[in-house]
Amino acid sequence: MAKDRLSSKFAVILHADVAGSTALVQQDEQLAHERIQDAFHRFSETIEKYQGHILELRGDALLAQFERPSDAVAATLAFQSDHTYLISRLKDDLRPTIRVGIAMGEVVIADNTVTGSGVVLAQRVEQLTDPGGVCITAALHESLPKRMPFNLENLGEQVLKGFDDPVRVYRVELTAGQSIPAPEQDNQRKLSQKISNWLIATIVVALVTVGGGYYWFKGLIPQEETASVELMAYPLPDKPSIAVLPFSNLSDDKQQEYFADGMTEDLITDISKISGLFVIARNSVFTYKGKAVKVRQVAEDLGVRYVMEGSVRRVDNQVRINAQLIDTTTGGHLWAERYDGSLDDVFSMQDKIIQKIVASLSVTLVEQEQDIQVQAEVSNTEAHDAFLRGWERYRQGTPDDFGKSVSFFELAIELDPDYAQAHAALAAVYWDIFSKGWWKESLGVSYTSISELARNSLLRSQQNPTALTHQVASESIAFYSGSPRRPLNEARLALELDPNSPSGYLALGNALLKAKKPDEAESAIRDAMRLDPHYSPDYLVRLAQAQFHLENYESAVKSLEKSVAINPEDSWAFVYLSAAYGQLDFTKEAQKSLKRADELRADAGWAPITIVTTSHPYFRWQGKKNTLKEGLRAAGAPNGGEWLRLISENTDTSISHSEVFAEVKGVTAVDVSEAHELYERGALFVHTHPNWFRRRIPGSINLEWWQEGWLFNEVALGRHAAKDREIVIYAHDRPRRWVANPAALAVSRGFENVYQFPGGIDAWAAAGYPIETDK
Questions:
Q1: pTM (2 d.p.)
Q2: I need a labelling partner for 54 at 20 to 30 A (CA). Which of 45, 275, 374, 409 fits?
């Protein structure tokens, strides 16, 4: 891509920042951020009224350009007057004060974006300013009309970093008893502009004549503090490494935050697909959202050379994007651009940003990356907007937000039925709801219903798969399948489409655990953690599982202790921690962890951990089960399997028997007509097979009975029925274990009026009785 042609001109530059922002943030980070953002938004509005132009608004700093010095000074004084009054009325001491420096000098223009020595000079002058004040250079002093009601105090010549010659600086205040000049109208501005241009030209000639103009023409690019490679938390990768910080929302409507966040995520997602780049994951960069952080710190925290930052302003259908790319090892800006357009132009603008990154970092694209197009799978901006709203909800990670995200994803699909990423996102949220056990809290549906919703969404997404599609497929197939081949294949396909996806590497690690390759799994999980340095506790649990099955129990304990310190509500982390302690003969610690695991499981309505519990599908794909059982035994976990004994005591046949019907002590068997009579008088019908969502007797509930009475236990059934209520247990036309065994378990739990209906749904349908289905 050809480099943009650069041009130079003189301009008036305003630089503002918050005095003592670090101390404010330390008092109350969230409140400080809100008040700083509010102050800069109001300043931005004032600047625009005075015909100024916002170049950048980031963290605790603002940069603007004006055509006339008088407008820049008047805008600043107008804002400072209002702002001083507003913060004086606050009841606490968290009062952000703004200081402003204004300079005039040569600037470099590239697609309306300004960089250069004028920016540096304004920043240096601002650093000399008292909180709540404004300082200007001698060049602006000479160009201000004498009629302006400004008092200018000469602060003398100042030595400024980056400039060889001293610069005379003036403090500006409003003359007592005078009013701040109002913004001029367009007809007045045309004449004023001619005068302003003449004055600038005069100043240039004078500066050059006396030799004082040297620093105007040095072409300095504003420098950030350089990052130290030695202080970086991780070694720099062997390819260009980049972190895209969350774009600031400059829109007046704070509800547009999702749009700015979505813009950032879109850019991260699309540059992640470039194999020649190393891209830090969204989770890690968003830990800096709303924080006044230096790019140097970001680079050192994340171990990257390049940092990108920017802002988004959306007003109705119009969008403005500012973006800049910084080489943190030199402190220099590789480029800075501004893009303006309608909402329909958003994808095109994002594509231009990506192409600039590729060109600036001299990245070689492989053949399939040559024609990168942002969000190529969607052209409907309304569908994309709905997707961004859903994704924002999904990222919140709560049961309620998961449920709300579904509505937005469904709307996106309704607006664009072929929107592949929306289908993949719907599959992802359904799978997360299923795997976290939140089907009731999020959607008010059953276990089997959410399983089917996840399966159907995934199948639809696989018609036009994305990296997210393959990641979800890998995890869900690994959960259900006995073979590691398909999960491994799906994870590798995910990484082919997105080689910088930590979720893809986690899926690969899971599949490798299932394949009994814990050493390779550990490597894949560490790759995920490197791409997402501010990783969640889930990463540590996965790492610990690999370490556990490598029999590196000391490392597993360290990883799990870190995990539960961050998230003390994860019962599975305590299960593994108990087993790891058990393997190390730390008996007290093992017993304490097992007790905590059981407490958390009881809160969720689950049975205590036993050796039999390791038969649960969660452990089916976690590597060696023998070492886990040994560790749990050492921790004092009981063998379990009480439900097998209870069933054996209450039935006349073996549990492995495949007959459709078996007598159960204390349980009455009924045919279809008797079952219908019970139905008519209000008996509770309980289905015990995963096919419940396909066909069921209307009003029935589904409680699966397998593994330790996992769902079919006193707690679960007790939520629906008193011990003396009539209960009819049925399934499809299946072996007796789907009806007789749970019926025996119900009797053993103290339920008094239990019936089994062996004919099940097939006999019910054949008799012409009503059927209910989710399809």
A1: 0.61
A2: 374
Contact 24, 30 (CB under 8 A): no
**pLDDT tens digits, residue range 196-251?**
444 444 434 433 333 333 233 233 334 567 888 889 999 999 988 999 998 888 77
580 by DSSP, 3-state: which? helix
**Could you write out the DSSP letters of every residue in 756-770?**
EETTHHHHHHHTT--
The torsion angles phi and psi of 141, rounded to 5 degrees, stand at: -55, -45
Closest CA to 308 of 395, 241, 376: 241
Beta bridge partners of residue 279, listed in sequence order: 242
Single-letter amino acid, residue 388: L
What single letter denotes the amino acid at residue 169?
A: V
Contacts (Cβ under 8 Å, ≥6 apart) of 172: 73, 76, 77, 133, 134, 135, 136, 150, 151, 152, 153
Residues in the chain: 775
Provide the 10 A C-beta neighbour count for residue 229: 14
User: What is the mean predicted confidence (pLDDT) over 124-152?
Assistant: 90
Residues 636-656 have pLDDT tens digits of 998 876 555 555 555 554 444
How is residue 485 written in tokens? Answer: 């081949």
Hey, what domains does the chain have and what are their CATH numbers?
7-217 (3.30.70.1230), 229-366 (3.40.50.10610), 415-427+454-634 (1.25.40.10), 643-766 (3.40.250.10)
Q: What is the pLDDT of residues 687-699, one digit of tens each?
A: 876 666 667 888 8
